[in-house]
Design brief:
263 residues, alpha+beta, Jelly Rolls, Arc Repressor Mutant, subunit A, 3 domains, 9 helices, 9 strands, AraC_XylS_family_regulators, sequence-specific DNA binding, DNA-binding transcription factor activity, transcription regulation, DNA-binding
Length: 263
């Protein structure tokens, strides 16, 4: 049994019940392998490891490895593109993690279910939505893994209010477009990770939630002032489908677009 979800910067994988793979390398990706149940028989650079629940092993880019699982065993694998972990303002440095790590499997399993649910059933076709999930994964790894990498927020300062103001102005002017976290972070002169955290500190919500709120506010005005169909309003405001529009409208307005128009 196996399942896998991949974005531009991360891959989330779960294998179970005697899953096995062949020896391979990842040229520009880190891999975090965590048995969450039973036993994982892992080989890394021809060295065997017998990993039990919570005994994580890190594979740095280019490391040869393979593994197999016992019956009734399962493993979570997180892969991260190396440039996503490069310290800010460091063009060449890459973190060196300790090979062996201890992971809270209960916490990881809960987070894994949330991340995969967001990517599979959420608005993953929206750049901001998928990028925010990527950032959640990166934040978890930064605070959990130990090694030669910066922990927490000690890089740079918080985004100044003037920069947040510029970001908000940009979002108000472009809310109907496919807005990227990288574009917004560039305006704020921050890394993606620090920008999302700073934006939430300043506004109380994530950039993607703020974008949806702007779209819903405009939809309210048009539902009351025009005879446009719900589908036309949805499409013109950047929603990929009417079901996404209905979900967002219900979340922020507390009723469906049709109910709002009739109210």
């Amino acid at each position: 049994m196996e399942m896998s979800i991949r974005t531009e910067r991360i891959e989330l994988f779960k294998g179970a019940d005697r899953f096995a793979n062949r020896s391979h390398r990842h040229g520009h990706w880190y891999q975090v392998t965590v048995p969450v149940q039973g036993t994982c028989h892992f080989t890394m650079e021809n060295k065997p490891y017998r990993l039990h629940e919570g005994q994580s092993l890190i594979q740095h880019p280019g490391t040869e490895h393979h593994f197999c699982l016992d019956a009734a065993s399962s493993v979570i694998v997180i892969k991260i593109r190396e440039d996503a972990l490069r310290p800010e303002n460091d063009a060449g440095g890459l973190p060196e993690f300790a090979d062996r790590q201890r992971i809270d499997t209960g916490e990881l399993s809960r987070l894994f279910r949330r991340w995969t649910s967001e990517l599979m059933f959420g608005d993953s076709f929206e750049p901001l939505a998928a990028q925010e999930t990527e950032t959640q994964v990166l934040h978890y790894l930064r605070k959990t893994l130990h090694g030669s990498h910066p922990v927490g927020g000690g890089i740079g300062g918080m985004v100044r209010d003037t920069h947040i103001h510029q970001v908000l102005e940009y979002m108000h002017a472009n809310y109907a477009e496919a807005v990227s976290v990288d574009d917004l972070a560039s305006l704020a002169r921050q890394s993606r990770f620090h920008f999302i955290r700073s934006f939430r500190d300043c506004t109380g919500i994530t950039p993607y939630q703020y974008l949806l709120m702007l779209r819903v506010d405009q939809a309210k005005r048009r539902l009351k002032s025009s005879t446009e169909s719900v589908a036309d309003i949805s499409c013109s405001l950047g929603f990929s489908c009417t079901s996404q529009f209905h979900r967002a409208f219900l979340k922020f307005a507390g009723m469906t677009p049709g109910e709002f128009r009739r109210s």
